[in-house]
Amino acid sequence: MTLVAIPLFPRVTALDAVGPYEVLQRVPSVEVVFIGHRRGEVRTENGMLGLCCDARFDEVTSPDVVLFPGGIGTRRLIHDDTIRAWLQAVHPTTTFTTSVCTGALLLAGAGLLDGLTATTHWRASGLLNELGARYVPDRVVEHLSQRIITAAGVSSGIDMALRLVELLVDRQAAQAAQLLIEYDPQPPFDSGSLAKADRATVDRATEYLDARQ
Questions:
Q1: Is the pTM of this model over 0.85?
Q2: Residues belonging to the active site
């Protein structure tokens, strides 16, 4: 079995974790465990949804894959000693260490992205650069020789998880997982990146983000 560890923390973005989980758990050879500072429930960024940690960081010492989600809560965890130490301890033996959205800030805070191109949510690009990475506005950024993959905001985690299945198993397995979740995006609008969104849309998105800080 391939063990995938997905850390959870207060004010995590639900889809950052659950989107990749829905892809990965479809594959019989993959086991997913949700971990955190302590066992039990954490609340997502708006407090409306609870997710459950089934193990502590110190109980999962050799995962095959780390998938660090993002969320508003990452800002308080960039210099968290437990997370930094855990990432530095497990990364040398992972098959892949990955992030979604602002989860990249925690990889960078642990020194795993020093000098590497990486992606994150567009709102956190400057902070990612300050932490030693080089932000690029791509949906998924791979450094396979370093076993690092980062995904941009929220929904891109599904794309990254499908790519992970291809790397861990094969292309057919990834396509089967895509079919199982009927992932065939046909959004009614074309404003899903800064390059496509007009100024009014960016302003409204920024207003909504600021309201949740």
A1: yes
A2: 101
